[in-house]
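Prompt: For my understanding, could you write out one protein's sequence and C-alpha cells?
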Amino acid sequence: MVRRADERKKLEMKHAQGGKETLFPNVILEGDEFTGAGRLFNIVTFPPKSSMGYHVHNGETETYVILSGKGLYSDNGTEVIVEPGDVTYCPSGEGHGLENIGDEDLVVIALILFDKTK
C-alpha cells in the first residue's frame, strides 16, 4: 500500500492537552493499521508559540522525532531544548509536553505504542 501525502488525513488540535494555540497533525497510520501495537503515528506541525500541554502516559509510551524547528521539551518537569535529529521518549507512568520556542514551525513525528510489559 502507498498512501500519498495529499491523501493523508489532516487534523487540527486546539489547546492540545491544555497547551497553547493550535497544532496540526497529519495522520500516517490509524485504526487497524496498528495491528494492536499502538494508537498514534503522526507528523505534527507546531506553529510558533504553540504547544502540547504537559500530560502523563499510562499503559503506553510516546516518542517524538524532531524533524525541524526548535522546541522546549518537558521531561517529567525538566525542560530541555530539542532540535532536528533529537528523539524524545516518554515511558508509561511518566509525563511530557512540548512547546515551539522558535520563529519557524516545529515539526515532529509522534508515535504512541502500547506498553505491553505492564
About this structure: The domain at 5-114 is CATH 2.60.120.10 (Jelly Rolls). The radius of gyration is 14 Å. The beta strands are 13-14, 22-29, 38-46, 51-56, 60-68, 71-75, 78-82, 87-90, 95-100, 106-114. The chain has a mean pLDDT of 97.
